[in-house]
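Sequence in, structure out.
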Amino acid sequence: MEAFVTTLLLTAIVQTGDRAQLLSAALGQRFDRPVPLLLAAFLASGLLAAVGALGGVVVGDWISIDALRLFYALSLLFAGLGMLAWRRPVGVLQRWRTGPFLTGLLGIAIVQFGDKGQFIIAATAARSHDWVWPLLGGWSGTMLGLAPAVIWQGELARLPLRAVRIAAGAIITLIGTALALAAFGLI
């Protein structure tokens, strides 16, 4: 259960101002059809959470406990640094002549593949040697970040996402740094 809660909270936090969240909001404005977009986000994030969780369990069986600690620490450190990094503007995939469901499914899957949330899911699964709870927690956390963006679209632009993203990124970077130093036995 700890793996569920940890992954849920971390993935929800790292979605703040992330490209997938911004793309979801942009597609919500473009299509103004939340149900197919929510279904697309649900399926895309579920598939990628499953890939991350199953990959994490495989990696967890191959490496030592110290390496698992470092893997988890680095997933947080790089997630935090990724939140602090500059963001390219997100396009609304205007050239894609597919409907809201297929555009949302493929667009969100492409943007989220190999993203920080997927690595957090993988690292948590590797550390806990369980794929179910990290998958469910990461999937839920991702949807906590994407669903409001699809539903409230333009309202999202009024929130101080950049400031929240930078503050959360700094906190996650500090936690990741502390865990990495602990993994090396330096603190």
